[in-house]
Amino acid sequence: MLGTPKRDRVAERRAATRREILDAAWEIARESGLTQITLRDVADRVGMQAPSLYSHFPSKMAIYDAMFGEAWGEYEATFAQLDGKVAALEADDPRAAMLLVSRHFYDFAVADHPRYQLMNERIVPGFEPSPESYAPSVRVMEDGRSRIMALGDISEADFTIWVSILGGLVNQYFANDQGGTRIHALLARAVDMWADAVGLPSKSAPSSPHRRKR
Amino acid sequence: MLGTPKRDRVAERRAATRREILDAAWEIARESGLTQITLRDVADRVGMQAPSLYSHFPSKMAIYDAMFGEAWGEYEATFAQLDGKVAALEADDPRAAMLLVSRHFYDFAVADHPRYQLMNERIVPGFEPSPESYAPSVRVMEDGRSRIMALGDISEADFTIWVSILGGLVNQYFANDQGGTRIHALLARAVDMWADAVGLPSKSAPSSPHRRKR
DNA sequence: GTCTATAGTTTGATAGAC
DNA sequence: GTCTATCAAACTATAGAC
Lengths: 214, 214
Hints:
Structural class of chain A: mainly alpha
Largest interface: A-B, 44 and 44 residues
Mean pLDDT of chain A: 94
Number of strands of chain A: 0
Oligomer: homodimer
Largest sheet of chain A: none
């Protein structure tokens, strides 16, 4: 009997083509907006005719769906790189841990507007993520919530407020500060406001270092 | 000589038709999404053929533009109704004033998703508000900023953080709480976090009533 | 001011040859 | 798996009659 070859060259080629298609779609989204992706444009960029895309994705929405899953997967992956540092700080300096996670969220969001829109806003008419693509986003939120709540005895309500504050800052960045650092400069203060309120101790200044000076 | 008639019936009819067109557009936006408005659909609802709309608006974007100006005008108008109460509280209980303004912003935003998207997000490809339609939004922001900064000696940075917090809560409402009250219930606490940090006194409890209980 | 007719695009998707 | 050919639909906008 013939042994199974170690590498499946056909599958590899298929995966590579799929990758090219998604990259082209992201490129269009970044250049012209998330909702401006068209199959013809995608096909052009990968050197195909539009109908050929149907050999790789069953519909346009399936492309959006793959992008959605990918975006949350990227968030998960980039956070994993930071996880060691965060874990090390969790017990010793929870406030510094929060700031690290907050900055990561902000930087990741701000780096790619259409990605953020796809992940967190409902902009594409008719698009609803499939359960499979939705899974990473659920994992991320569950993990974030349980770990943040464990930092002190922080309520779920306060976790939601933290998420709101970060999302709000990202909004302001895209609305009034694109390419700038004005909003980024407010991040630490905003997180400290929250940390003070939920009673998160800080190593450098245990009480409320950011109360207004008188 | 003939006197000018007191009422211009032609102009009145024109204004009424314009009103009908805008109402139809809002209706479609609420039913199907802001970007789903089509001239045919608008025309159908007002009992016209699509090309007839061009007697009232020079382009589809002009309809969006009118809607944009209208939305900020509505905000201005609804806030004006509240202004007496806010002004009365400003000196005596600035924290209560902030909460009133915050609730108004939140309630107004949450009442109409496409309106909020048109006002604060850039969802419609190619749409840029005209200077005339943009004017009310500038007025609202300028007035809000100067009055809030005058409540205590609050910095512009902290004003921006307040705007971010509110926008973030609205986001969370639309993402995870549509039709619910979960996020609304967090509003007072979030505003208090901010008020504590900027040193806004409260009549009922001058210091930090919302610090975590131990 | 509203109509009909239509130009001129653009779009997502399918059929079938190779 | 990619192609050509094409469908069927939708869209904004203009021209010109009434």
